[in-house]
Model the fold of this input.
Amino acid sequence: GDSVTQMEGPVTLSEEAFLTINCTYTATGYPSLFWYVQYPGEGLQLLLKATKADDKGSNKGFEATYRKETTSFHLEKGSVQVSDSAVYFCALSVPFGNEKLTFGTGTRLTIIP
Amino acid sequence: DTGVSQNPRHKITKRGQNVTFRCDPISEHNRLYWYRQTLGQGPEFLTYFQNEAQLEKSRLLSDRFSAERPKGSFSTLEIQRTEQGDSAMYLCASSSRDREGTGELFFGEGSRLTVL
Done:
């Protein structure tokens, strides 16, 4: 079945450091890929998405590129801020079906000033 | 737009009792999903509605679990004869399909169940 493997956490970085959170997937067909973020005390919200190979999703300084050859969708940010502290989830869905999301286990990110 | 609303936010119950959670999706969304999230894990899919029709149920959804969406608007998730293993955060999400066939899911803040 479909699955998402996500970098184990927690991750602690200093402000302005470079961030990478690894994500790889296994899926039949051509899934769409997502990063969702959960800030403290809030619900999950979409951070970015990519729907086909070589697409790059970006938002709030975060980027991720859909790499079909390596089945990966790694999340990157060049300079993190304290406000980026949250739990990040990689997920996939198969388009034109019921579009349910299959999530990774999540990576807790803490940014220290 | 008030977003996806879930009630109650937190429920503490004794083992063997029944509990019901309610989800009010974004009004124009015809798709509604329930997920369960335990500590340190990602959300796991439970069930999916398109309008009032329940189109998919996960094997995680045992016979003690039932979900309804009677008029294609709000939904309820009932757990009968609760067990300690049911303790989790229950998440509701809604969406409407976009042209790419992949609609963004909008999540509520969840209903946390604690079974003593």
